[in-house]
What does this fold into?
Amino acid sequence: MARLELSRRDFCLRSGAFVAGLMGSRWLVRDAAVAQGTRLKVAGVYTVPIEQQWVSRIHKALMAAQERGDIDYTWSESVSNTDYPRVLRQYAESGVQLLVGEVFGVEREAREVAKDYPKVSFLMGSSLKPDPALSNFAVFDNYIHEPSYLTGMVAGGLTRSQIIGMVGGYPIPEVNRLMNAFMAGARELQPEAKFLVTFIGSWFDPPKAKEAAFAQIDAGADILYAERFGVSDAAKERGVLAIGNVIDTQPDYPETVVVSALWHMEPTIDRAIAAVKAGEFKAEDYGIYSMMKYGGSSLSDWGTFADKVPAELKAKVMQRQAEILAGSFVVAIDDSEPKSTL
Amino acid sequence: MSALLSLISLISTTSFWVATLRIATPLLFGTLGEVLCERAGVLNLGIEGIMTLGAMAGWLVVYQGSGLWWGVAFAAILGAGVGLVHSLLTVRLGVSQHVTGIGITLLTINAAYFVYRMALPQVTSPPKIIPFSPWPIPGLSRLPFLGETLFTQPPLTYLSLLLVPLMAYILYRTPLGLAVRMVGENPQAAASQGIPVYAVRTGAVMVGSALMAVAGAFLTLSAFDAFFFNIVNGRGWICIALVVFAAWDPWRALGGALLFAGFDALQLRLQQLWGSRIPYQFFLMLPYLLSIVALILVSRHTKAPRALLIPFRPEERI
It folds into this structure.
């Protein structure tokens, strides 16, 4: 058998060339695809991990777009606000065409980055309105107050103690809006209902959210609005009910979560991708595409609670839903901080 | 007056005390671990990171199919390993304990996040395990009030409470405890008595770090059923402060942990009661504020172990 003659130097050179060849071919393929305009280069930059409810919806919509073959998607999670502009710049420099993220903590800095990269499109979760002078910076937000109102009706219809608990992270507009709509919905069916409101001062402390929920159950709450992870766990342990928010948590808590107000980012993302591809991306407020009319939000299926929620209540909720979709009923947008009413 | 009455009725509920014990458990594990390290003369600022690593590793082991106690054991072993690294640097090499500790925290937190993301790259909602459930102690759990608060707790809470007398006994009543205290007060004297200073310090830091990791594991295996980025949320730093409050004593560590946890349980309840009149931030601040006040009142005259932060170099003159 002939021995393979291979010096160390030879080996290094050969394997180096091989790897370079591989990488080169990969780049070529990608560039070709982009050049044909088939795949848009998109990056997501998030300040929290992708498991976080809010960000998970954006991530899911972008993953779906990638699987369809519309985009090439990369992402960075847990980027701190102080580092956020740098990461945006890095992606912008690397040839990404659309940047998606959330700039609630870096509104000004993110806009400065957008100014420096006029050819890159920015679609950012933001509390502010779009600025026509900054034409490549569009904003969105989770305007899911409509299904929140509907879930509030469910809570109002189901509570026996007339005490409803709500645990939130921080009272920022995105949270307040949903809580206020939820409270309004509950009051429609139960004008006497009292609300317990607790903020835990953290987006990511489920044990603490759970403690806060326990405290509310101790105070007599028999249905909880689960804005944070941990609340449904407390409800499950004590055998009270919960209402989901943003994502459908009923599969995890089949006996606890009655119904959820869902956020769908697909209408927003798909519109933005189409706009960038068509060269028509501009400073727009994509917030409306999170509303029910556009399929950006919805009431989840009743699932395991299909038979447990009284038909009369379900009919009332469904009627409201139809009115919202038809435009004859408008859920007010109220961004003020909700307070306990006990 | 009615405010005072509602406060008293809040504090007299069993659920308030159950919550206090539950919140106190990770703090107690962490504080006891830190007490042990510092009694031997080594500050361990790696605590926040070791807790995060324990929370992740313990949970991951259970998620992969092992039993809950294996998760606790794995977290403890990993914690001891990190403690070994910390003591190699600070005890053997005599490097700055502050810098090493912060470095360990940064390293272990990010290692934990990295491993978690590598193991579960595509999750959109955090996977769950079945956590410890409360173990009511037969007979005792039927006692009025005490039965519900003290004897219907998850096993790790019992363990943390049992650790207090155990550690106090070992520290104050055994030759081993004397050796630990001695290397923290006067290592030269200890060495002259034939006590292996490096070994004792290293051992104390390893066991202390193991306890910190169990504190983290409690969060993901008992208090909650999933791992989150940031789940430790500063609890490690609270433990560092509680050690000073406790004047480096296990019994007072129990008192400090219960006090802080009690304030935390209280603020969650007060937010609902008075939240319409007082901004919520005030309530969140309350446990920290009251703990600082308690620290000032209780611990003004306490003294730290004399050789804390001072590396032992046998050849050095003092």
